[in-house]
Fold this sequence. Notes:
This protein is an alpha/beta fold. The protein has nine helices and 16 strands. The chain has helices at 42-49, 115-135, 152-163, 175-183, 197-204, 251-255, 266-269, 273-289, 305-313, and strands spanning 2-7, 16-21, 30-40, 60-61, 65-73, 85-89, 98-102, 106-108, 143-146, 167-172, 188-191, 210-215, 229-237, 260-262, 296-301, 320-324. The strands form three sheets. Strands 3, 5, 6, 7, 8, 15 and 16 form a seven-stranded mixed beta sheet that branches. It has a six-stranded parallel beta sheet with strand order 11-10-9-12-13-14, with helices on both faces. It has a three-stranded antiparallel beta sheet with strand order 2-1-4, with no helix packed on it.
Amino acid sequence: MVAAVRVHKHGGPEALTYEDVEVAAPGPGQIKIKTHAVGVNFIDAYFRMGMYPSPVGMPFTAGNESAGEVSAVGSGVTDLKVGDRVAFVGPLGAYAGERLIPADRAVKLPGNISYEQAAGMMLKGMTVQYLVNRTYKVGKGTVVLMHAAAGGVGLILCQWANHLGATVIGTVGSKEKAELAKKSGCHHTILYRDEDFVARVKEITSGKLCDVVYDGIGKTTFPASLDCLRALGYFVSFGSASGQIDAFNINILQTKGSLFATRPTLNNYVAKREDLVATAKDLFDKVGSGAVKIPVNQTFKLKDAAKAHKDMEGRDTTGSTILVP
Ligand SMILES: NC(=O)c1ccc[n+]([C@@H]2O[C@H](COP(=O)([O-])OP(=O)(O)OC[C@H]3O[C@@H](n4cnc5c(N)ncnc54)[C@H](OP(=O)(O)O)[C@@H]3O)[C@@H](O)[C@H]2O)c1
């Protein structure tokens, strides 16, 4: 038996219960991982509250990201062995002392990446990798608006986009968060709880507006985010921290300047093994070179997962949050 955090009934953070579970031996194509660190992500809360249905039914073990060492290998697995250091983003079940995953969803960790860093960056960092390279190609001179710039995805995106030569504008919930975002390469910050962020974007860009808006907030920043875009700009709605955007009339994209809108998710961008490996490699290279640092600003014990969710949803966290068994 190993310790795990499970959800028996959808609800708030209190729905996370700490209990023991049995972990079977790995089947064909699977590996068993002894968990060293677990990533905490908003998607964990979406599953917990039932916004996303659990593909394994109820109850389920929470969590979609962790790092650890391979403790057993199923038949047919040839490229991983017991003792290998790995990380993964994948099926539910990460909030546990040990778990099974399909071997083809794991990536080997380079020696210079710690388990804690890996748990703080695989989901968020690979998301940033595709957002700035594939969803919209950020480069020298691109003007980016990043909402929640001091958050987990936010601090990584600010650094990465700055490294690519972009001008980064970030919205943040407090002055302390503004300082943090600035230290991570955000050129201009907007306190969007107090300031009209559209007016501030107009002012900062002298009316030219942004090429791309990365919006993980959803309900409360829509449709204002569209008003931050130049004609033919890209609205990238990649999350719903404040709730999902309601159905809208697509003609709004025409009236606001023939805009493009997309709702991407990491799963699609790394569905093919070669994309997963290439995306992870670029992330490891950026972190290895020092171009991107992974701020793991909150560490909780696995048994305190409910507190980690409460803080994340209460806007009390910055950078990445991890759980350790
Ligand atoms: N599509 C994908 O592939 C993908 C992958 C990873 C993450 N995501 C999404 O990216 C977003 C950020 O994820 P994260 O893990 O890095 O979280 P996070 O940014 O660390 O936390 C969310 C932040 O959103 C801001 N926020 C604004 N309104 C909020 C509200 N009503 N409730 C809670 N937070 C609110 C808060 O920052 P302020 O206090 O500064 O406002 C909060 O700290 C989430 O929407 C997540 O679902 C998407």
